Fold:
Amino acid sequence: MRVFTFTSRSRGMFTFSSATAAPRCFPALCRKPNPELKISSYIGLHRGSGSFDFGRSSPAAAFLKLNSGFAASRCVSSLSYSASGTLETDDAVVRVEEDDVSEASKSCIPVRAYFFATSVDLKGLVEHNKQNFIPPSSRMTNYVVLRFGDLKPDPNGLGYSLSGNDCCFVVVFQYGSIVLFNVRDHEIDGYLKIVERHASGLLPEMRKDEYEVREKPTLHTWMQGGLDYITLQYLNTDGIRTIGSVLGQSIALDYYVRQVDGIVAEFTDINRGMEKTGTFTMQRKKLFQLVGKANSNLADVILKLGLFERSDIAWKDAKYAQIWEYLRDEFELTQRFASLDFKLKFVEHNIRFLQEILQNRKSDFLEWLIIILIGAEILISVYDIAHRSVTAL
Structure:
């Protein structure tokens, strides 16, 4: 009986007899090792015999316990089968990594979205960055795309690949959002300053959001979603425009939601004060300011952000429509706008109620003023009559 012994340097060793394991393992052992198998352990193949002792804390041991023949075939670098029918090895040791971190990091494209101003002069921005400007591929005119650096050809034959490349893209929107693709951390401030020179209405606090795009040419579908990332076969300029449009709307919508939350908080404090005192002391001017702020926020969301306008690129190509719809659902743009609209209705209800109170106050004041004037007129008339009667005497 032949005995095959596999030794794990980190945990232990195991042995199985040729009568049961060899027929199952040998066809697989003759195949070329599969580099995609990922086991975090050192595994070696030796001649000899022994016993199989799995380490309790070894994930590799647990895997091998269930798939001994399959795993062994992937862990041998040099095998030969002698004429006498015995399996021989070169005592080679193969290390199989748990995850190919280097390959994964090369395929990742960091995406960062910022909202820092209420308006950007796109014409002036393009005028000062003509060499980096990419002409639009659709009729949308509320954003521009700038490219810094040169793209290297994709070895897979798909044109160009952004992952693992020094080239970066900057998508700037007229309503104040900027989305950076493949920009290193120490270069972010430099690109933001390029846009700030042409921005107006700078916000005291910049809003920020992060996302990730992964390129995988071997992906069996065009795109695949994940937790805080999306995987594409490749990322080109149209994909950058589509992803940037959704992220730009999302980060801007977050700002406007916080603005409305502040208005709601003010009315909440007023209502609590009325609950305790039975009255409120807000001036009409302050109320009108809140009305204007609420209406302007709603107008900006609908008109500037174009939240309900479908991307022209998504209209033309179903692949980008799939990305557009997935990201809108991922960032819950429709639900967040519905929440914003509900809050604005609450604000509208409170404004109408307080306006009625202020109007009643004004009506009461005018009524009392009329009463005072009528009383004064009566007193003057009585005084005039009394004065005339005394003069006649």
Summary: The longest strand covers residues 199-215. Residues 110 and 185 are 10 Å apart (CA to CA). The two ends are 153 Å apart (CA to CA).
